Prior knowledge:
By secondary structure, the chain is mainly α. Helices cover 79% and strands 0% of the residues. The protein has 4 helices and no strands.
Amino acid sequence: xxxxxxxxxxxxxxxxxxxxxxxxxxxxxxxxxxxxxxxxxxxxxxxxxxxxxxxxxxxxxxxxxxxxxxxxxxxxxxxxx
Length: 81
């Protein structure tokens, strides 16, 4: 979006850091916390809609499943010795 790489990196890191710290300290689910910061018609809502259209959640689930399956395969291979 035209930001210098260092600024974009810092922005991304601090955004994730803040979200992770909030989630770790709160008894509420990540979904509930997300709902609290998502304004109707706002930037987060627009981003989430875009990701839903691109089926990002399904891609992440498939990636985690693939990693898990590979982990089992490697475990089986290493366990044969």
